[in-house]
Structures are given as C-alpha cells and as structure tokens.
Amino acid sequence: MSKSVLIIYTGGTVGMMNSGSGVLLPFDIENLLKSIPELSRFDFKIDSVAFEKPLDSSNVGPQEWQKLGQIIADNYEKYTGFVVLHGTDTMTYTASALSFMFDDLSKAVIFTGSQLPISDLRTDAKENILTAIELACMTDAEEKSMIPEVAIYFENHLFRGNRTIKANSENFDAFLSPNFPALAEVGIHFKLNDAELRKANKSFSYKSKLSADVALLKVFPGFSAKVFQSVFDNQYLKGLVLETYGTGNIPQDKHLIAGLKRLSERGVHVLVVTQCIMGSVELGRYATSEDLKALDVCSGKDITSAAAVTKMMHVLANCESPEEIKALLRKSIRGEVTV
C-alpha cells in the first residue's frame, strides 16, 4: 500500500501573509502549500482540504472540533496519516478534544502550526509542516502507523496532544509537556519514544457528541464568594473543572465549600486540577484539601486544564450514569493522566 497524507487547514498564523499595510491576512490552502516547494520531493501522495473560512484559533470550539473530527473519520481509510494546520492559542484544546473523540485510533493525527507566518522570511512553518508530514507517514514493517496518537509537533518535539500546554507566545518552542515525556525528538534523526506511544488493538470509532455545559473556575486569593455563587447556582452547569493551588488546596472559606456542596447535591461533576505547571493533585495531603476530599469530587491528578475541560465535555455527552462519568473522570482513558 502506498503512503498518503491528508493535510487539513483550519487557519492560524501558519497560513498568514502580510498584506503590505502591516495587517496579516489568511492564505487559501493552495497558496499556502505553494509556499512550500519541498512538498514535491515527497514520494507519496499529499492531499489537502480546508475549512471554508480560515479561523483564528481563538474562534475554534466544539463545533469546529466536531467538523475536524468528521473530516478525519470520513477519510480514515484513505490515508496513512493526517496533518492538521491549526493556530497555536487553542491547539491544545482541539488536540485534547479529538484524542477523546477518537476511540482506538491506529493512525497518526499530527497538529502543527507556527509562530511566524509562512510568508515571513524567518518562518518556522515550513520545517514544522514538513516534519509533521514525515511523522504522520511513519509506518512499521507491517505498514501500521508508528504513532497512533493525536499529537502536537513543534520545534523538534512531538508531544501527546492531551498532555501539552502552550508555554511561550514568542519563542519557536511554544509547547511543553510538563508531566509526560516527548513521544519523539527530531534532529538529524527521528527518535521515537516507543515505550510511551499508545497501541491500538480494536477498531477505530468516532464519537462526536460533546457537552458544552462545562465551566472552568480558578481559585485565587481574595476571590468574591458572590461572584463564585453565580457559577455554583447556574442551572445549566453539568460539569466544573476547578483549578486549585498546589496538590488540590483551596481557601477554607465557608461560602466556597457551601457552593461546592450544592453542586455535589445537584449532581454536578467536579474535576479538580492544579494550577501548577508540573505535579499532581493529591486530595487530603493537606488540611486545605480535606473539604474537597469529603465532597467526593474527582481528582484530575496531573491532567492539563485543556485536557480536563475537553474530557469533561466528552464524558458528560457519552455516558449514561453518574457512576460511569465519575469512573471515567478518575481514570486515564487516552493517556491524559499518569497512572
């Protein structure tokens, strides 16, 4: 079977050109790819598809995740792998969402983009795109993908998508995976981290349903109980991701605890994550997390906030019972949590 890659262009800095007046305008996919003449040197087929209107990633959300997921699902059997060109600001959210929406993925879905537009003389776009294509097409002797993951490639590193954070808005190495090793390091040679790459044993399926009835709340010194109350009493809320201090610590404030208790009594699921870049939630380690432990909320351990939000959206939409939701929130379903 000959190799092939489908490039999906959603928008972002990677496809921008300077209008001459200092304003960045989006390329269409044809002109974007024409800017990379090196593509003709690949000895396999490269096809492309684009969103009707290129989007700044700040405008990408659940509807676009579903659209992107459907494109990949519809073309799944036709291509060896997929490369998604995406803006950097919300790339971790989109990659995390798709990792949960794809069950038993056996092909590479590699996200990439750039910090400088492809029209810029010093752009990082070309190297990122060319390498992402090579990674998406890597197969073993049995022609199976060597990277059956939703991953992000940027500046010499391939990271699991749901383990990644955007850590820098100025340097080319924009992304980090603080609590999980890189899936691959790329220099003169490709060095795959085989021990950490996931394995697919079943048939691929795509679950498109997502619930947007989710909130992300960050505790901070001097918070207003009245402001928090508007979240706790929201009738549409089904899931809350709570960003806490350290290992799951929160202020010992009676209004905060009372609000969280009301959520628990209403059946709203709470997933606790840490504001720290590195480390894990460990409820009960300090007295300031005992109240959360007593409420039987779910510990997100070392999950990223982006993965926590998208996992909550996925689990709420695809589980029938509260017990199943809690069980999935507490375990690793796509390698997003260290077990």
Account of the protein in words:
- This protein is an alpha/beta fold and 339 residues long.
- It folds into two domains: 4-206, Rossmann fold (3-Layer(aba) Sandwich), CATH 3.40.50.1170; 214-329, 3-Layer(aba) Sandwich (Rossmann fold).
- Helix content is 26%, strand content 21%.
- It is built from nine helices and 18 strands.
- The strands form five sheets. An eight-stranded mixed β-sheet has the order 4-1-5-7-8-9-12-13. A four-stranded parallel β-sheet has the order 15-16-17-18, with helices on both faces.
- Helix 3 packs parallel to helix 8 and helix 5 (225-232) packs parallel to helix 6.
- The longest helix is centred in the last third of the chain and has 14 residues, at 305-318.
- The two termini are 37 Å apart.
- The mean pLDDT is 94.
CATH superfamily of the largest domain: L-asparaginase, N-terminal domain
Shape: globular
Q: How would a textbook summarize the main sheet? A: 8 strands, mixed
Task: Report the CATH topology name of the largest domain.
Answer: Rossmann fold
The quaternary state of the protein chains shown equals: single chain
Low-pLDDT parts are none
The helix/strand series, from N terminus to C terminus, equals: EEEHEHEHEEHEEEEEEEEHEHEHEHH
Question: Would you report the number of β strands?
Answer: 18
CATH class of the largest domain: Alpha Beta
